[in-house]
Specification:
It comes from Streptomyces mangrovisoli. This protein has about 140 residues and is an alpha+beta fold. The protein has a single domain (about 5-130), classed as Roll (Nuclear Transport Factor 2, Chain: A). Helix content is about 20%, strand content about 40%. A hairpin with a 5-residue loop joins strand 3 (about 70-80) and strand 4 (about 85-95). The model has no long low-confidence stretch (mean pLDDT about 95).
Amino acid sequence: MSLALEDRLAITELVSLHGHLVDDGSLDRLEELFTPDVVYDLTDFGQAPLSGVAAIRDAAWALGAANPVAHHVTNVVVTASPDGRVRVRSKGLGIKADGTCGSVSYDDTVVRTADGWRISHRRVSARRSPLGGVTKPG
């Protein structure tokens, strides 16, 4: 499947919008990002996957002041599949109120809905070691 430039732009903006909405506390607008049955996979952080937009919203409210004050997304790569789904890989930086920061990888599945492109599955993986933990062979 080939994606039109307009679709690629819309998908990239969708992924970017996440940080703006969360950082602004606009959690009532998460339906603009996710399908109603989204799976938000946080198993790399020792948490069970969240199912549905309400679960994501509740988890963010529960985290409260421990949420990052800024989410930044970079290195967005969009790959179309023959089944109409789109895979999006991106990097995220989170800045905490105390100035510490962390890095994650987002692996998203994006689908076209009647309301536009939405994320139906997101896996968040912490970046904990250089070169992804790979060491030089031999």
